[in-house]
Amino acid sequence: xGAALWLSSGALVFVLARFVRLGRGxxxxxxxxxxxxxxxxxxxxxxALDFGGxxxxxxxxxLFAALGSGAILGILRVATHNSRSEANP
Length: 89
Hints:
Layout: H1 2-19, H2 28-48, H3 59-87
Helix pairs in contact: 1-2, 1-3, 2-3
């Protein structure tokens, strides 16, 4: 149940990130994969920090996974946006 909460928080962050126009490209499947993998990894880190676990949902772990996924998606978008704008002068 905890892992499902981490993945759903990553999916929610992905959906919210799709509303932000800056850096939104056509490669949404890659962004979804990055959000879900990041949320899963951060959920495992939260479990190691004793925020919930694999089978017990904990809002702190979900928040940790969601904020981390949002940060990584933001960094990814800024990096890809800058590289696209430099390629097309």
